[in-house]
Structures
1.
Amino acid sequence: MSSVSGAIDWEALKQQLRHSQHVLSEEFSPSPEMTNRLLKERAKTLATVQEDLQERTSKDWLLFLIAGEVYAVPPEYVVTVIPARQIAPIPCTPSHIMGVVSYMGRMVSIVDLRVLFKLPQKGLTDRNSLLIIAEETMEFGLLTDQVIGMHAIYENDILPTPEYLGGPQSDYLYGITSSQYAVLDAARLLADPKLIVNALG
Amino acid sequence: MGKYNESLRKRLLVAFTAEAGERLGNLADRLAMATPPVDPALLETVYREIHSLKGASRAVALGDVEILCQAWESLFARIRKNQQEFNQQHLELCRQAEKMLHHLIKHPDAKAPDSLPMLCIQLESDSLATGEPDASATFPQEEAASDSAQVLEDSTSPLPPIGPVNSKRRLKVDVTSLDTLLFHIEDLQQSKLEAVQTHSHAEEAANNFTEWHRHRHNIAIACRQIRQQSEHLKQAIPDEQQTLLEFSDWVIDYLGQWEYRLSILARNAEQVARNIATASEALHLEMQNVLLLPCNVLLEGIPVMAKEIAQASGKQINLTVEGDSLTVDKRILDELKIPLQHLIRNAIDHGIEPPSERLVAGKSAAGILSIDFSQDDASRFVITISDDGRGLNADKIRNKAVEQKILNEEDASDLSDQEIYHQIFNSGLSTSSMITDISGRGLGLAIVRDNIEQIGGQVQLESTPGQGTSFSMRLPVSMATFRALLVKVDEFIMAIPAQAVIRAMRLPLESVRTIENRMTVTVADRVLPVWRLAEILQLDGETERRISGTRLQTVQLYAAGKDFCLQVDEIIDDTEIILKSLGPQLIRVPNILGATQLGDGRVIPVLNPQDLYQTACATAHSSITMYSEEAPGQRSKILVAEDSITSRGLLKTILENAGYEVTTANDGMEAWSMLRQSDFDLLVSDIEMPHMDGFTLTDKVRRYRSLSSLPVVLVTALQSPEDQERGLDVGANAYIVKSSFDQVNLLNTIRQLL
């Protein structure tokens, strides 16, 4: 029906219909061998799909933005997301420590990943959020430009960090996805003694 | 079914272990402290506890525990029956039995130690006793048990079934849920502040309609005129105008509704804020009470620990406790556990002498170790831990301090013995072998002091050679009673723990002297070092290092055993704070003790005075040049009090253009409070202002001692000679009438006055 200018070519249509009917009747009265073959084929296809699904298990990750780059953290390390307000600077701390905030009656230190990863910095806006992450004994917040939300990432979509990305962040990266999300290794970040401030008096 | 029973037993076992742990803890401490003749009340307690434990162990089918309790009970039964004295041997048996019981309960499913049957036999037969053969000892166990039960019932003082009866009903609460509750209450306080903020925003928004009222009036008039005109001329209103007219009508109506809604919102917000405030304050207050615990919880396990240490070092001690019923905030007590253990260990290990040495010195063989709790004032209490041992050796500390280059020889010999004793708290010192000689605890005493200071306390130490040492810790009763001085430095607000603050002083610049490139000031005949707080904390960065005014705001501190002064920009307030740690990532930040949240929600750092002193000493000398003379072009600070926005803006612009630093106040009241808080060189004030007029303000300024010489310029629309006279009467230096008000006149006047 490529032509819209003329009237409908009824004859051609009817012929097409007849042909389709013929093909259908052929297909739906298959010989036993053919049935067998078809079933086998289908079983194979199904099996492949199954295999594919197994390979492509996905997990939800929490995505956030820092200096225009998308980062992902495993949600099991995330305590909460709160607006970046009232961060109290603490004198005599290294530059990657932005300060502390009060959360649930306790003080939580805030790490500025932009300093740690040597990313460009700009002032805080309303959209800045703090992502508090924790494991058993360690807890701190990460300053983000914006928290995007939960997003499924296929396990096999996470590729090892390329060599050329040997920047300061590669220490804390679990990998990079094909869509260029930097997947953070929260456990390593939380366990890094370099991030801890413990000056002896 | 078997499975069910098994899981039930497991659950019961958990409950039993908890119960037994508590009973035993108490028992062990009391046995450890006991010496013959034993207080009959203690015997009753021990007896009662064993009996309860026996019953409980039967319920969870802990046969070994039951057997031991039974044997133990029979010991008591026999003593009672024969009216025997409870002697040292009995006490020793009891202690062994308690240890065994502790072991059995700790490992409920393990095989009982081989020594159990022997101990049971000893308990039952009182094998060490020499008295006539005891009938009950030969009784089969079952009967011994019933016998002892009999004794219990026959006992003259009827015993309550479980534990002491308290007229007040008490409830055991999981500590973690208590902590969570506390956090929530603190969060609620934050919500309270936010609600107040929301209310003021809503109110501000509603009040902003005043401006609109003026426009509305004009628009309504214009609309009416257009309509009347068209009616008058009998001409239809053009479409464009019609659209505008309709829009105006709609806007007037729409904004009218909004004004109403906003005023309702503001009122509701006020109500919400008030409700939250009431709830939050009530909860906070109640929580303070809930958190109060008697000090004896702090002592759990201490007597046993003390006994063990003494035994291990071949010493004898008598531990006494006084005043442990005093109630203190649980959070304070939690922080005291470790310091207390350190001090007890030190006292026994190094204070108290071995029995032979004591006897030679004419002391009792057993050293006396006492822990006293006493209320100091409404908000503070004191724990004193003292021993009657050999005391500290000042010369030894002196030598070591010199050896470690912590003191130079001259200083060391100049310092009094008491001052020298305080060196043992020095963390720099205590890592050395020297402290090992004196306390053997390495960093121990430094940690003790750190812990105590963290919770707003102070440690004092007294020692007399040959007579003993005593540590007193003065601490707040409640976490909320930590007072702090809020200071402003380089736009930052910080808190200094009040216990370290001696006084706040505004010093004339001339009083600051420079000795060997260091700033000093003489206060009450003493020369004290002065440091800029901003410099110690390295806050300066690119900011201007300028001191305005002729005075230096300083705070005199006493920390690390030293007096010193810090220069700050401003003193904001003296307030109560709750000190919090900075979280697990910031374990220890130099110069910073922790952080706190102020009433308005701001989080600010709390400074560590001791560190400040040390950092200051390590920092190269302060930049003196900025103080030694008035910096050229230093700007005078002028406060402008004026209620009209226009006049205020005008005055500010004129004065700032003339090179002055201008601060503005919206009325006399505000100006009055600003004048007292910070330094100004001159006041320019309107006369007619709400809350407090210019006359009253001037009068107050003249009557206030530190402000009495402040130049005051009144600027006003009032031009009657009477007013001018009144202005001069109350002490204004100049009176400028607005109608004759021109820049030159004003600036000339100010220049003359400054």
Note: Chain B has five domains: 2-154, 175-290, 299-476, 481-628, 637-753.
2.
Amino acid sequence: MLEKALQGSRSYWGWVAFLAGLILLGFIAYMRQFAVGLGVTGLSRDVTWGLYIAQFTFLVGVAASAVMVVLPYYLHNYKLFGKITILGEFLAISAVTMCMLFIFVDMGQPTRVLNVMLYPTPNSLMFWDMISLSGYLGLNALISHVTLDAERKGIAPPHWIKPIIILSIPWAVSIHTVTAFLYSGLAARPFWMTAILAPRFLASAFSAGPALLILFCLILRRFTKFDAGREPIQRLAVIVTYAMAINVFFVLMEVFTAIYSGIPEHIEHFEFLYLGLEGKATLVPWMWASAILSVIALVLLINPKTRGNERTLVAACIAVFTALWIEKGLGLIIAGFVPSPMGAVTSYSPSIPEVLIAVGIYAIGIFLITVFYKIALSVRGEVKV
Amino acid sequence: MERERRALLKLAGLTVVGLAGGALARTVEASSKHAAKPGTKRLAMVIDPRKCLEKDGCTDCIGACHAAHNVPAIDDPRREVKWIWKEKFSGAFPDQEAEYVDEALTSKPVLVFCNHCDNPPCVRVCPTQATWRRDDGIVMMDWHRCIGCRYCVAGCPYGSRSFNWVDPRPFLKSPTPDFPTRTKGVVEKCTFCDERIGKGQQPACVEACKEKALVFGDLNDPDSAVRQTLRARFALRRKAGLGTRPAIHYLV
């Protein structure tokens, strides 16, 4: 099937070349990091995880969101999602790949990374995260390949794939739960040590992921012959609405518990995020932007008129995605380290090589999505249209 | 059909109960580990801050440790590596409010290093067993297995772990051949001088302290110097409420 990705229009090749350029830049920056060490990043003794781990956390959510199209289709027999399940699965594959790359570039000794398998350590959540992420990647690769192959041949997918698809549903929940456990089990970091972290991760995943999927559907409609149809997009929009509302609710619960209990080590992290601490306020404008975008998104989504109008829906989806990217892809991880367990307030902002590496990994992910969607649509082009 | 489903649910329920029970049993077992087993050691240290502060600005223990272990001297606080250092009182003991105590005590720094916890969070989170707890209580570090994920750094409530952001070797002024140097990309920390203890010596910091502010010994031996000191005077441990059970005691 891969040959479908090798034929395309000029704009297709232009887009691929653009992504390849970004990937190359990221690769060059990574070579420098590989030679010098993680000292090329903006990380420090106190803020030891930053942009990379935060992107990993955010993208795990995007990956888990495929379940929001798979579940209605396979468990509730919601036929209208039939056309877009494959888009969700391909999105999951590229998101998980990006997650793994972000973990990889964060390693101080990348050549030793297989030690995680050589010395399996079940008491470390990182071990379980590796299992759940690679399992999820394998499941989605198998499912999308088998179902797309069946579609190409114009036959029904084999029966044995159904239980595997059903398995991928709880598995999607597991990847985000285990990722939340990475953080929420640390007594050293009060900001993360909250039982609601995993539910919060799931809520944000089930809003950011489907929001991205809506945007993808609309982009595909514009540039290709593929049309997901109005009804499935509207259904996805309802899912985004509920998940986003629950996410905002969860965040407010965290703020309440921290502030009302009055425990300094719980409040300080929120102070750092929303007000700034000891004059260090790099994240403050971002966090308020995230809060405002969340409110705008909720207003546009809850109102049936603006949710029904595809123009305002696009704005709402962009707002959801950006708000959650700031919340999880910036705030959540960095604020866990500020203040440090010793009370040190250290500023962190990613360095240029760090940003280039991150952009390069995103370019790899978008490249994969481009190729996968191209294959899927070409296969469909043979079958119908 | 209904019956089958019930059987399945029962099985699933039992599995969950079994898993939870296993985890609980392990926790209970871990807490009973604190009881002294005959014939085993529990190495620990007692610090007397008053004696430590006798000589203003003294860094004998820090110098001795860092020289003996090839710890690089990196000036940039964002990149520095340290095994033992002076921390401000509010940083070392954030949960000890001491507003009305003589400021001479709380304005002075506190000597801190790895606590060699009974229940070390860093060991729990390490994905490669590159850090582990020995039977005598020392939390060890394998610099050749460490993948540099820094999960232990995130897990340590005491900030005791340093990461090598860059190659540390250019920052060594006079490296000693008796101890390995480290490479970039690995985590390191105090190992209670396992290499000296093995030869029957005291840790380098203890030996270097002329004021005898540091007392090292076996907590399982009722006649050891650490036990005698702790019997006579009240001592604090950092963030005792977290249940990590540090082996470093600070006399009040």
Note: The domain at 42-251 of chain B is CATH 3.30.70.20 (Alpha-Beta Plaits).
